[in-house]
Amino acid sequence: MTDYSIRERSLQPTVARVEHPLIETARMFAGNRAALSGLAMLFIIVVVSLAGPWLYPTDPFEMVWSPFSPPGAKGFLLGTDYLGRDLLAQIIHGGRATLAVGCAAALLSVFIGITFGALSGFYRGWIEEILMRITEFFQVLPTLLFSMVLVALFGASLGMITFAIGIVSWTGVARITRAEFLKIRELEYVTAARSSGASNTNLIFRVILPNSLPPIVVQAALLIGFAILFEAGLSFLGLSDANVMSWGAIMGNNRPYILLHGFTIMYPGLAIFLTVLSISLIGDGLNDALNPKLRKR
Amino acid sequence: MPDTPVESTTLLTLQDVEVSFTLKRSSLFAKPSLLRAVDGVTLSVRKGQTMGIVGESGSGKTTLALAVARLLPVTRGQIHMNGVDLLSLRGEALRNERRHMQFIFQDPYSSLNPRLRAEKIVREPLDRLSIASTSRRDDRVRELFDQVGLRRDQQRLFPHQFSGGQRQRIGIARAIASNPSLVICDEPVSALDVGVQAQILNLLRRLQEELGLTYVFISHDLGVIQHMCDTIAVMYMGKILEEADRESLFNTPKHPYTQALLSAVPSADINRRNRERRIMISGDPPNPIHLPPGCRFASRCPQVEDRCRVDTPPLVNIDRHHRVACHLVKAAG
After folding, report:
1. Nearest-by-CA chain B residue for A10
2. pTM of the model
3. What's residue A6's pLDDT?
4. Cα separation of A274 and A282, whole Å?
5. Residue A31: band (very low, low, confident or very high) from pLDDT cuts 50, 70, 90
6. Cβ contact (<8 Å) for A192 and B174?
7. Shortest alpha-carbon distance between residue B330 and chain A (Å)
8. Residues of A with CB below 8 A from B128's CB?
9. Which domains does chain B have, with CATH numbers?
10. I need a labelling partner for A100 at 20 to 30 A (CA). Which of A34, B176, B275, B332 fits?
11. Which domains, and CATH codes, for chain A?
12. What is the pLDDT of residue B328?
């Protein structure tokens, strides 16, 4: 074997801090107070929603007292709804469905969006033409109306509602992914990977996608908030799964009495507001943490 | 010093290679226009030698390099390496052949994937082209780090933690990882400052000696070219105007463009500076989409004649190792 110990010159020692980009992102995020309080808020909301049935075992569907009892009456902290059901129990139990629909719908739209964006940004040509025309079709579609038609036609089950939300909200992800792919595919390290024997699939999933994730992650976080609002909107219009309690469903059930007994709508609305707010704060924090231009300020 | 190179075998031959791009149509009914970035290039590179390609921006140097490495589609022509017809390879066969031809990129800042550690970047060709057994690959990576002058404790760092020169060393380690016979260097030092340039150039020369590499070396810096190359081809607007061994090209340049190019090299020697007149060429290169007939250089040539604007001069031998494409230069009788 050849001995390669010869050195032309001594290398100046580098600051040998082995730091993964993710750690740097985490540090940046941790320095952002708004984002941290959003994270804390969301954490509490998620824990209460998941552990709710054990924390507060009152059945949200059971009529426990007279309708529209004001908050605090007879020990019902938030009062009762139009059927005399415990509003606090409904909110605590309803969080699960709301969060689940939000996350699942966001996941679905991220999946569709990445598929469309990655394929059209990587292959260009006629694939891009076709996929982007489809994307534009979904962009100009009146989203709420289209979802309402879907839910009305195929039944208001939780799965159908999730699908209806996911199918109308992926266009943003597709466009962002495509833009990132168009930018990154021209960089030399992609050509270098091809020269090292990477196949197209390798290039898409192992090289370009990981490098285009930051804006997609931010968009995905914001999509959860959007999906929760969308679910509430559908429920408010009466398109909710009658067998499942969700925040939107509480508002939808009490909608006729909004002027007389506003609190029945205000409390679930407040829960939605706080959740979406915390998600938005996290999304903003992620955006800042993942954007290298804002680092080291 | 005897400078007659030992007649070695040819590694790479290019036959009338053309690379053209179809530009986006300006309107639905417009005819798509064609840009010939590389237009009929014929070259051969001998084993163990360095073929330099020099030319200004937009002359098609990089396009030619990418085409040879099968990283861009070739429109016409033939490329053979070690007897293998490179352009006929598809899929798995092409992937297998890639281990024999590797690429060093111009910009060490964009040629390394920012999400991978240095060791992973160097290891990639080993993994993807499945060279060496899995257990041997770690040793091979360490060996490569030694070879290019990086420390082993730098293996786990990320690209942004290296300087430009060190990044280029990683790029070089990646290029030689698969034991290639041909390495295409696309302006490997033009993004680096001068002190680092010298280190990298010397590293490349040392590796060439140790590993018997053949280089296709692209640059716009004539000093670098003179330092590195055995044979030099001058490119302009996608065509080769002159090709010669280093001595002939630098001492007796024949093509007016080469002469102008060489006269533009700054010299530290005051006598030489006073003695030699700088040949100025005016104007800009012609629009590559609507090329006029005749010689590509006619619009800027100080010695232009009428026939230059009509006929394209062929690349003819005036000497055993000297080819020129110019009407004003007599072919070897």
Report:
1. B149
2. 0.83
3. 42
4. 12
5. confident
6. yes
7. 42
8. 196-198, 202
9. 10-23+33-236 (3.40.50.300), 250-333 (no CATH)
10. A34
11. 28-294 (1.10.3720.10)
12. 86
